[in-house]
Amino acid sequence: MRLRNIPGARDSIRESDYCIDEPSSLKGKWNTLFGNDNPIYIEVGMGKGQFIHTHAKLHPNINYIGIEKFSSVLLRALQKMDADPLSNLKFIRMDAEYITDVFDKDEISKIYLNFSDPWPKDRHAKRRLTSSRFLERYSNFLKPDGELEFKTDNKALFDFSIEEINSSGWVLLFVTNDLHSNPNLCIDNIMTEYEERFSKMGNPIHKLITCRLDK
What we know:
Blueprint: H1 9-15, H2 30-34, E1 40-44, H3 50-58, E2 63-68, H4 71-83, E3 89-93, E4 108-114, H5 132-139, E5 142-152, H6 155-166, E6 170-176, H7 183-186, H8 193-200, E7 206-212
Parallel strand pairs: 1-2, 1-4, 2-3, 4-5
Antiparallel strand pairs: 5-7, 6-7
């Protein structure tokens, strides 16, 4: 379960140089923030930031933006940055519902979705980050040759995601229902905190990579 109530978390986030206070003001201009024209990758629902921080450290020629709506969780990612600062990583505290207010056409090269909230009730399906509703939003700012990578331990959510992708003008490039069973697939796999926990429990990890059909 995610932490949601740490006293002073929002104040710490507002005061942090790593977190963008008014991200909509940078729509279409994110490269000016980073001071270069390197590709921009985002992680939507980044949790405590282990995945995106590791990626940013390994790939200094890529700019990364982590998005998280819970202040107390985002605070953990900021603490990682305090201990190991990186110039190619920034954070946004926001609900993914408003993501098209923040990024402009063809501005993002890759989207990561890791262990997203499954929203198990049918009436909440449109809130799932792999729903057709969100795929349409991503199409507004993902480059034509950009990709979306999704990992989860939730088989029902994974099956739902494949159905939504197939019906939304996207194409599947890669699918596995047991990522960790293939040593070759694990070579470059960076695990999130949830992935480490679920793997230790013996849960299979599902992964897919998809892109827009008009690629």
